[in-house]
Amino acid sequence: MTLVAERPVRATAPAAPKRRKRANVLPYLLIAPTLVATAYLLLYPLVRNVVISLQEFGLPQLVRGDARFVGLANYVQVLHDPEFWAVVRRTLWFTAINVVLIMVLSTSVALLLVRLGKWLRLLVMGGLVLTWATPIIAATTVFQWLFQSRLGVVNWALTSLGFEEYRNYTWFADGEATFGILVTLIVWQSVPFAALSLYAAMITVPQELYEAARIDGAGAWRVFSTITFPVLKAMFGLITCLEVIWVVKAFVQIWVISQGGPGQATTTLPVYAFQVAQSLQRYDLGAAVSMLMVVLLVLALLAYFRQLYRQEREA
């Protein structure tokens, strides 16, 4: 018995903290490459853009590499330019029209998907996915063909219906018409994502709530306003914010179709920043315009989130 009692006991307790420490560090090591790549692809361009906006950076500085810092002079010059504020107002108007149409149409499509049968739902969802997957350049080119003055399908259809004034009508020479075409294009590209996201959220709402509302005699609008929207308010807010970002930064569609024209009818902030940087070769002013666009967008989203947070607290 004494031999058993005197046998040394293994000291295994200290090993546990080391294993726990390795286990705590391992997840960070696994995501480190992704974080580094993200920082390089997102943060570095942002920081570089800020630096350029604070420098005198034109074509000579791009070639010689001797840009000097001028502080906030570029921002002062941009903010004192009346054309910049005209572009800001046009961008806000363009964004408001697009986002309202996107949210109304996507909500309607999502409600339709909830009520469709299995096969019709799959057919509609397949069409939405194909629309969403269409490359931006390809979709923009198709819209150019549709509204082409001589061989466009739109002019042919309108002329066939008796609207002779649209024979050989040049849509892209009219500022308002070009503006409307761009709104239609961006809404068409945006609705699939918003509609599918809202549909995925709607099917999570408990059916018992809808059944109780129908028993009480509530109509479709009453059910949506008292059940669907309040329950999914956070999702509606998230989709709205994402669509605001998507519309504000829309550049390819506008540049390919009109390059901001005719005149300045479709020039928004991204297009204006590109025009200043490339046409005038004032990369410092272009960087300042793009940073002001980011600031305006962040302020708008912060105001919206603040209002949403206040409503949630009151509820």
Structural account:
The protein is mainly α and 315 residues long. It has one domain: MetI-like (MetI-like fold, Orthogonal Bundle). The chain has a two-stranded antiparallel ribbon. Helix 12 packs antiparallel against helix 15. It is globular, with a radius of gyration of 28 Å. The termini are far apart. The N terminus is likely disordered.
How are the elements arranged and paired?
Elements: H1 2-6, H2 15-53, E1 55-56, H3 59-64, E2 68-69, H4 73-79, H5 82-115, H6 118-133, H7 136-146, H8 153-160, H9 175-202, H10 207-215, H11 220-231, H12 233-248, H13 252-257, H14 269-279, H15 283-314
Helix pairs in contact: 2-15, 4-15, 5-9, 5-12, 6-9, 9-12, 12-15, 14-15
Mean pLDDT: 85
Which value, in Å, is the CA radius of gyration?
28 Å
Helix/strand/pairing class, anyone? mainly alpha
CATH superfamily: MetI-like
Shape: globular
Helix tally equals 15
Quick one: CATH class? Mainly Alpha
Low-confidence stretches: 1-5
SSE arrangement, N to C: HHEHEHHHHHHHHHHHH
* Lateral arrangement of strands in the main beta sheet: 1-2
Strand-residue proportion: under 5%
- Major sheet description: 2 strands, antiparallel
**Fold-level CATH name:** MetI-like fold
